[in-house]
Design a protein that fits this description.
The protein is an alpha/beta fold and 274 residues long. It has two domains: 7-132 and 247-272, 3-Layer(aba) Sandwich (Rossmann fold), CATH 3.40.50; 138-243, Dihydrodipicolinate Reductase, domain 2 (2-Layer Sandwich), CATH 3.30.360.10. Helices cover 32% and strands 23% of the residues. It has eight helices and twelve strands. The chain has helices spanning 17-27, 49-52, 66-74, 87-99, 113-126, 138-151, 173-183, 250-260; strands spanning 7-12, 32-38, 62-63, 80-83, 103-106, 130-132, 156-163, 206-207, 213-218, 224-232, 235-243, 266-268. Helix 1 (17-27) packs across helix 8, helix 4 (87-99) packs parallel to helix 5 and helix 6 (138-151) runs parallel beside helix 7 (173-183). Bound molecules: NADPH dihydro-nicotinamide-adenine-dinucleotide phosphate and ligand LZUJQKHR. The ligand O=C(O)C1=N[C@H](C(=O)O)C[C@H](O)C1 is lined by residues 109, 134-135, 163, 167, 172-174, 224.
Length: 274
């Protein structure tokens, strides 16, 4: 019989589209317990987060003071902050969590490479685990691994990511991570055959330092989708992942909560902790 008590978790961005799903998933996980819920809407302060999200009373009030909530969480044991908020605020929130010894699981996208490097250094110095995970779904990990294999054989690749039109950042964190994984093949992609001219700026998408084009589509009716297209003379190889429900992210989120408490440094990507 295990004597370990449940892992205390704070959710930042608690009543957002992802935050609310995470709160329900935590409630159904016997080894994890919600101890804090952060949001900014002053009208919701002090209200029960379970009721705010239309679930069931959870006896955890919505708070807008991250630091107070982190201190309270830390007093309950080795605590975790799941961040599903906004690119503008995520860097500061993650730094604050590390400073208070609370392990961040970061789903929020839009962090720059420099910010990630800085957080890695900070987590290392503090010997505090931190997981940055641009995509929590297993299907995306499998697609990225297949893409890495294909990159050994194809010299031409473009990424198309498609999301709902309430998404703040472009390209998606998943697309950025996918391009970085392709770049591990250490080759130059997409050498142009002709001089290209964009008659509409941006028509060829954004280009990563490795020369991989990323195209971002934003439309109502979409959730989260990505295609990776490899081309070579006479053939096209397409990998595609579709998210039809945010439930697909929850096993990954719960896994990361369980994994991060044993870490002493920052790890980037779900694939590294599976
Ligand atoms: N890693 C993954 O697998 C996934 C990652 N994501 C990422 O998670 C993040 C959240 O996505 P989603 O739930 O769809 O977004 P939502 O906009 O639905 O939710 C974000 C929440 O964060 C709060 N918020 C917004 N701005 C700020 C800010 N500046 N400071 C603090 N809190 C803020 C908002 O509440 P309020 O303004 O009231 O505080 C809101 O409730 C995005 O970066 C998205 O890309 C999404 C899906 C999967
Ligand atoms: O904003 C979203 O919705 C999503 N964001 C993440 C990203 O930017 O890759 C993960 C997933 O695509 C959903």
């Amino acid at each position: 019989m295990s004597t370990q008590s449940a892992i205390p978790v704070v959710v930042n961005g608690a009543y957002g589209k992802m935050g609310r799903e995470v709160i329900k998933a935590i409630d159904q996980a016997p080894d994890i317990t919600l101890v804090g819920a952060i949001g900014r809407n002053p009208e919701l302060m002090g209200q029960d987060i379970g009721e705010v999200i239309g679930y069931r009373p959870l006896e955890v009030p919505v708070m807008n003071d991250l630091e107070v909530t982190l201190v309270a969480a830390q007093s309950e044991g080795l605590a975790v902050m799941v961040d599903l908020s906004h690119p503008d605020s995520v860097y500061e929130s993650v730094r604050a969590a590390i400073a208070y010894g609370v392990r961040p699981v970061v789903g929020t996208t839009g962090l720059s490479n420099a910010q990630i490097r800085d957080l890695a250094e900070f987590a290392d110095k503090a010997s505090t685990g931190c997981l940055i995970v641009p995509n929590f779904s297993i299907g995306v990990v499998l697609m990225q691994q297949a893409a890495q294999q294909a990159a050994q054989y194809f010299d031409h690749v473009e990424i198309i990511e498609l999301h709902h039109n309430q998404k703040a950042d472009a390209p998606s964190g998943t697309a950025v991570q996918t391009a970085q994984m392709l770049a591990e093949a250490q080759k130059s992609f997409n050498t142009p055959l002709v001089k290209e001219t964009e008659t509409i700026p941006g028509a060829r998408g954004g280009t990563t330092p490795e020369g991989i084009n990323i195209h971002s589509v934003r439309l109502p009716g979409l959730i989260a989708h990505q295609e990776i297209l490899f081309g070579s003379p006479g053939q096209l190889y397409t990998l595609r992942h579709d998210t039809s429900d945010r439930a697909s992210f929850m096993p990954g989120v719960l896994l990361c909560i369980r994994r991060v408490i044993a870490l002493k440094s920052l790890i980037y990507g779900l694939d590294k902790v599976l």
